[in-house]
Amino acid sequence: MNKKRCCDCGETYNEEFFDLEGKGTSRRRPFCTICHQTRRDKRKSVDRWLEKARWTLTHHMKSLKRTRDELIKIFGWDVRKMAGDCEHAFKYTCDYCGTKFDDMVHGMADITLDIVNIKAAPFYNVNTRWVCNVCNARKKRMSTGEWGRYLQYVTSWKAQQRKLEKNPLLALPMFEWAERR
Fold this sequence. Notes:
The protein is mainly alpha-helical. Helix content is 48%, strand content 9%.
């Protein structure tokens, strides 16, 4: 087994204890996995929202098959603005389902950037919105028409739930007349 010395902590480990530099490469990072994780944690703790925005930009760069410069210069994907918008949206609700992000269990992982119309140019703040992970994943599996009908259904269902919270007797069949008044 080949041994390698970590440039951060100075410890010597088996080569497998050093992460690969990227997909499709056999080169290993100069620091061990523990130091690598420590670096990532430190970077995240400085500004978690900025880190979320950077990751989002990188993810969409790959899925849209665009360069970082294209998204930033042509389509206005300013990482600092994205971080502020993401943090602001997280204090409220998903634009699609209306669920509060505070009520979701995965924290920052629950908020994602949706490209509203994937066939149109991905201009930030024009064709994008911060939504919950569940809605974004569900939208990807539906056509535009199906997604529109689904949102109407969710809106109608939530309105019905609010009525039932105010008056639970409406759930009983014999009291349907009370709703008509």
